[in-house]
Write a structure and sequence with these properties.
The chain is of the alpha+beta class and 409 residues long. Helix content is 31%, strand content 26%. The chain has helices at 15-23, 54-67, 82-92, 99-106, 108-117, 131-141, 167-176, 238-254, 287-296, 300-308, 344-348, 386-397; strands at 4-8, 27-32, 45-48, 73-76, 125-128, 145-149, 159-160, 183-187, 193-201, 204-213, 230-232, 260-269, 272-279, 326-331, 336-342, 353-358, 365-366, 377-381, 401-404. The strands form four sheets. The protein has an eight-stranded antiparallel beta sheet. It has a four-stranded parallel beta sheet with strand order 3-2-1-4, sandwiched between helices. Strands 5-8-6-7 form a four-stranded antiparallel beta sheet, with helices on both faces. Helix 3 runs antiparallel to helix 4 and helix 4 (99-106) packs across helix 5.
C-alpha cells in the first residue's frame, strides 16, 4: 500500500508540489475549503476544510486515515498554516513542528521576541495598541518604519511609513488584515533582501534556495510592499551568503525547528544579515516548487515530503548539482475584472522562457496592488547570466496583455 500524504492547501501555487508527490508514488490527499481548488483535482483524495481550521482539518484527517487510507505525513505549501499542520501531526502522531513552534512562526510579534531573546539580528520592533502609539514611534524614531499586522500573510497590510503615510490610516489598514486585530511596527532596514529556503537536519542547516528579492515597484505601489519575483543565484559575495545562511539557521533553531523545512525573509543591512521573518512551511510563489529545482537541481519539495514521512534525507540531497540563472517576474494588471489574457503563448515561445503560468483568468477580480494577491501571471526565464535572464523575462512580459472589463456607464 502506498504511503499517504496530506497536503494542506489546494491553491494554484501548490499544484506543482502536489504533482511531485504523485510522482513519488504516494497516495496524495489535499485539503482546502474551496471545493473547486485546482489542487483537489490532482489528488487521490480530498478533504473539504479550511486551511485555517486546525481542529476541523485534524478531525477530518483522522477520519480519512482511519476509514479510507492511512496518512503517514502532512505538509503545507502555498499557505502559511503551520498551526494546521501541527494539529494534524499531533492528532495522528506524525512528524512535524510543535504547536509552539507553529505559533511562533505565525505570530510575528512572538517570533521577534523569541529571536531577540536568542540574540538573532532583527530590526527594532514594538507592539502598537493604537494609532497614537504609531504616531509616537514616528516622532521618536523617524518615518523609516514598517507597520504590519501581527498575524497576516502574503504582505497583506504591510506598509512603509516614509512616504508620509497617515498614522491612523496605516494602523487601521494593518489591523484590518489581522485575525486578532493586533498591529506592530519595526524599523525599515535598507539593503539587499534575500529569500531563503532551507532544511535543518540534526541541527545543521542546508539552504539550496537563495534568491535576490525584486522590489523594483516600491515607489509605484507605495506605501505597500509588493514583491515582483526574484533572481537566482543571488548576486552576493560568498561571505554574505554564509552570514545569511548562518543567521537564518540560528533563527530556525531559536523557534524550535529541526529536521524540518523553513523559509527566511532576510535583509543584508550595513553588511550584516538580519531576519525579517521566518516561516515553518514551504514557500508560495513557486520558489520551492519551480525555481529551486530549475536553478539548482535540488528536489526540495521531495526532500520535505520525505522528512514528513519519517524517511531519511541526507546533505547530498540538498546540495546543488548546478547553478542556473532563473529569474521570476509577475504581471500586475490594474484593479478590476479580467476580460481576457493575451500573448501567453507568444511569450512562452521566446528564447529563455521556462514557464508562463496564469494565476487568474477571465472573470476573476484583481484587487488593488497592495499585496501579492494583485498578481495575474507568473513568468520564469533563464539565460547564460542573470542579466540575460532578466532581459529575456522583460521581453516576454512586453508580449503579455491583461484585458480588463469596462465598467458599466
Amino acid at each position: 500500500m502506498a504511503k499517504g500524504l496530506l497536503i494542506i492547501c489546494g491553491g494554484i501555487e501548490a499544484t506543482h508540489g502536489i504533482a511531485r508527490a504523485r510522482e513519488m508514488g504516494l497516495h496524495v490527499v489535499v485539503s482546502d475549503a474551496d471545493a473547486n481548488a485546482p489542487g483537489l483535482k490532482l489528488a487521490d483524495g480530498q478533504i473539504i476544510a479550511s486551511t485555517y481550521d486546525p481542529d476541523g482539518t485534524a478531525d477530518a484527517a483522522e477520519h480519512y486515515s482511519r476509514a479510507i487510507h492511512p496518512l503517514h505525513g502532512v505538509i503545507c505549501m502555498g499557505a502559511d498554516v503551520p498551526h494546521t499542520v501541527a494539529a494534524v501531526a499531533a492528532k495522528l502522531g506524525l512528524k512535524g513542528v510543535s504547536p509552539e513552534t507553529a505559533h511562533l512562526a505565525m505570530d510575528k510579534l512572538a517570533m521577534k521576541q523569541r529571536l531577540a531573546a536568542h540574540n538573532v539580528p532583527i530590526p527594532w520592533f514594538a507592539p502598537l495598541r493604537d494609532a497614537a502609539d504609531l504616531q509616537l514611534a514616528l516622532l521618536e524614531r523617524g518615518r523609516d518604519l514598517v507597520v504590519k499586522p501581527v498575524d497576516s500573510r502574503g504582505g497583506r497590510g504591510v506598509q512603509r511609513m516614509n512616504a508620509g503615510r497617515d498614522a491612523a490610516e496605516a494602523f487601521e489598514a494593518a489591523q484590518s488584515q489581522s485575525p486578532t486585530g493586533r498591529v506592530m511596527v519595526e524599523a525599515y532596514l535598507s539593503g539587499p533582501q534575500i529569500s531563503t529556503e532551507s532544511i535543518l537536519l540534526n541541527g545543521v542547516g542546508y539552504t539550496p534556495g537563495f534568491s535576490d528579492r525584486n522590489y523594483e515597484y516600491l515607489d509605484r505601489f507605495a506605501p505597500w510592499f509588493v514583491e515582483n519575483g526574484g533572481d537566482l543565484p543571488a548576486q552576493v559575495s560568498p561571505a554574505i551568503r554564509a552570514d545569511v545562511e548562518a543567521t537564518v539557521t540560528a533563527a530556525a533553531l531559536a523557534l524550535g525547528i529541526d529536521n524540518h523545512n523553513y523559509k527566511g525573509d532576510m535583509v543584508v543591512h550595513q553588511g550584516k544579515a538580519h531576519v525579517i521573518e521566518i516561516a515553518a512551511r514551504l514557500s508560495g510563489g513557486y520558489f520551492c516548487t519551480r525555481e529551486i529545482p530549475l536553478s539548482t537541481g535540488v528536489d526540495f519539495v521531495g526532500a520535505t515530503i520525505r522528512l514528513a514521512l519519517g524517511e531519511t534525507v541526507t546533505p547530498a540531497d540538498l546540495t546543488p548539482g548546478f547553478e542556473r540563472p532563473v529569474v521570476q517576474r509577475y504581471v500586475f494588471p490594474p484593479a478590476g475584472r479580467i476580460a481576457a489574457l493575451h500573448g501567453l503563448d507568444d511569450a512562452r515561445a521566446l528564447p529563455g522562457i521556462l514557464e508562463v503560468l496564469p494565476s487568474k483568468g477571465p472573470g476573476d477580480i484583481i484587487p488593488p496592488a497592495t499585496s501579492s494577491a494583485a498578481r495575474a501571471v507568473m513568468l520564469l526565464a533563464t539565460g547564460e547570466t542573470v542579466a540575460e535572464a532578466r532581459t529575456n523575462a522583460e521581453r516576454a512580459l512586453r508580449l503579455i496583455r491583461v484585458e480588463m472589463m469596462r465598467e458599466a456607464a
